[in-house]
Design a protein that fits this description.
6 helices, elongated, alpha+beta, 2 domains, 210 residues, 9 strands, two-stranded antiparallel ribbon, single chain, three-stranded antiparallel sheet
């Protein structure tokens, strides 16, 4: 084998370095799963308390603070949305048939006759009712205001809570995420975070001492 061929043979890495890298990946992957589960539980608890706080006093924003009082972010409540929805198909179709017959479609298929409302018109009625906050439709041609049967204003999206971290500034160069990371490295968050990640305590030994 020539000297050039020898130089092209890749050098095998240190087996201990490979093992350490793979182990580090395995450990961090397992811890990541634990953190995700703990986060889901923490968010669920926070959302419940924030919603109860809102219903009791109307509070829509709450700060997140480190144990020393440093603000790292805040959670804001975003109210749910309401939209017009067809709740009684037959009542809605009958109203369209009697009031706007050109928007009412009759389709004959084998063994049955199907009546429907043109999707474009139904969407227009629902959009206007949503904007008005009531099951009403204004005929642009005549100005007549119709109370639309079979349509109700109902919740279409539940309220949610959104976390926003603080940004760095001249007085505090670190943003909220960096502040949390620094506090974690200093051990200041152990009492707040570690209980959620710590393993379950071993079962008590109820056997009487010898």
């Amino acid at each position: 084998m020539s000297e050039q061929q020898t130089e092209n043979i890749p050098t095998a890495p240190d087996p201990s370095a490979v093992r350490d890298a793979v182990t580090r990946q395995a450990v961090l992957g397992a811890l990541l799963d634990q953190v995700k589960d703990a986060y889901k539980g923490a968010k669920r608890d926070a959302d419940d308390l924030l919603e109860r706080q809102y219903k009791a006093g109307g509070t829509t924003k709450t700060d997140a603070q480190l144990p020393d009082g440093t603000k790292v972010g805040s959670v804001s409540r975003h109210g749910g949305e309401r939209a017009a929805q067809i709740t009684d198909d037959e009542a809605f179709r009958s109203w369209v048939r009697d009031t706007y017959p050109t928007e009412h479609v009759v389709e004959i298929i084998p063994a049955q006759v199907v009546t429907t409302v043109r999707p474009g018109f139904a969407g227009k009625v629902l959009a206007e009712a949503t904007a008005a906050g009531a099951a009403r439709y204004v005929d642009q041609a005549t100005g007549v205001v119709h109370d639309v049967p079979g349509v109700e204003i109902r919740p279409s999206r539940a309220a949610s809570h959104r976390m926003t971290y603080t940004r760095g500034s001249k007085t505090q160069p670190l943003g909220g995420r960096e502040l949390v990371a620094a506090a974690w490295r200093e051990g200041a968050l152990a009492a707040l975070v570690l209980p959620a990640l710590a393993p379950a305590p071993p079962p008590a030994d109820d056997a009487p001492a010898a």
